[in-house]
Amino acid sequence: MNLYHLSEESGIKIFEPRPSPQHYENINGNAVFAVNDIMLHNYLLPRDCPRVTYYAKADSFQSDIDKFIGNTDKKYIINIEEAWIERVNKTKLYLYGMPAESFELLDEGAGYYISYKPVKPVDVIKIDNLLTEIEMRNAELRILPSIKQLAGEVSGSSLQFSIIRLKNAI
């Protein structure tokens, strides 16, 4: 299993556990977050960029798939606001490979893992073009004027979803 941490900061030598940016009942203290390779596409954006992401599960209703995913050959959908597209185009990210042995699963649907210990990355890759990287990972990026209504609608659907940094949305 490959785990990663994405950052706009280069040269990180060690990741120290920090408070979680949001409340999780399963987190007991400061932690280092990582995401698996399958869900990495959700984090190929500037850290503060609000987004609504989702995909169909085996038990998702066809009506939800039709409404939110529609006719696309991509498995994963990422929605951001048009106010962020210029920053997305300018941002460079650093993909830090993380050693899996110190991590435990936090949320399978989101691909989140945590470690309560400091973690030294095993490697780092600079990503210059976020849009290309997202597309290469079987994800479709959709640009909307606002994602707030979509966030409310998709959270009531049968899809697997993740809503990130909604407080930064218009």
Write a concise keyword list for the protein shown above.
170 residues; alpha+beta; 10 strands; six-stranded antiparallel β-sheet; single chain
Number of strands: 10
Q: What does the largest sheet look like? A: 6 strands, antiparallel
Overall 3D shape: globular
Helix content: 10-25%
Description of the structure:
With 170 residues, the chain is of the alpha+beta class. The protein has one domain (3-168). Helices cover 17% and strands 30% of the residues. The strands form two sheets. The protein has a six-stranded antiparallel β-sheet, with no helix packed on it. β6 and β7 form a beta hairpin. The longest helix has 8 residues, at 62-69. It is globular, with a radius of gyration of 16 Å. The model has no long low-confidence stretch (mean pLDDT 96).
Summed up:
With 170 residues, the protein is of the alpha+beta class. Helices cover 17% and strands 30% of the residues.
What topology does this entry show?
Layout: E1 3-7, E2 32-36, E3 51-55, H1 62-69, E4 76-81, H2 85-90, E5 93-98, E6 104-107, E7 112-115, E8 123-127, H3 130-136, E9 139-144, H4 148-155, E10 160-164
Parallel strand pairs: 4-9
Antiparallel strand pairs: 1-2, 1-5, 2-7, 3-4, 3-10, 5-8, 6-7
